[in-house]
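1st attempt posting a full record on here, be nice pls
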Amino acid sequence: MKLELPETKSTASEKIENLILQMSSDDQLVLNGKETNIEALEQKIKDMLPSLEKKSLVLKADKLVKHGTVVRVMDIAKLSGIEKIIIATKVESSEK
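the predicted structure (as tokens):
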């Protein structure tokens, strides 16, 4: 899935074993490489939690995904037992 992540000037070097959820601008969801939908997301996260080292989720949302959709997904993740949500970004290039 090709995503256009929002840019930040800071970087994060935290590397942990966690779930990765990709959200495309056309509302496609991919959880750890497998397509899903928003209705099935809570149960899929719950099913995967026991195998996680840390109960965290990396959220890779295209910058064009509606804010309300991102908030809804974050709420579902928290209700599923996720304790930490990491929002993925890319470092802003200095050349514009």
